[in-house]
Amino acid sequence: MNIGTRKIVVDEAIAQLRLYAETNGAVLHYYDGLPGMTTVGGSDPNQVTFEDLGRTMVIGSDLRALDIPWLLEVEAEKEFAAIPVDARLEDAERGSDLFEAAMALDDKFTGHRGFGHAKKSKLLHLKRPYLFPVTDSFIRMTYGTASAGSEFLSAVRDDLVNPANVRDFKLLQVRLIAEPATSAARLLGEVPTLRLLDILASLLGEAK
Question: What is the pTM of this model?
Answer without folding.
Answer: 0.95
